Predict the 3D structure of the following.
Amino acid sequence: MWWIVAAVVLGGTAIAMQAPVNAALARELGGPVPAAAVSFGVGFLVLLLITLLQGQGAAFLKLPQVPAWTLVGGCLGAWYVLSAVWGVSTLGVLTLVAALTLGQMSAAMVIDATGALGVAVREVTLTRLAAAGLVMAGLILSRV
């Protein structure tokens, strides 16, 4: 399990780096929307290559059968990248990541508590509320 946590921590590192890199791309291209589009395009090509190298290209043939709502993830990812590109220059990386983390934790508690989107139900505990509260405190302190 710890290797999974380490991989996710590295994913968090990538998120912190992605926002300023995409903001620099936005400055070069003249806007955040083209930068987000290029970022997604490059990401798509990398993931397509990995999929093909793993011999899983046939998975794309299943797309016509998947429920339409499962494709919303791409829209959510686009909003994440776009909001990060817009926010990083004003907020700075630390405040941006704190705000993103607070949003993630808040939504995650609702999803866990309700079992929405097919996840197992997990109760909202005082410890989980305290964790989100500490992230909120960190967000507030990052702007002081």
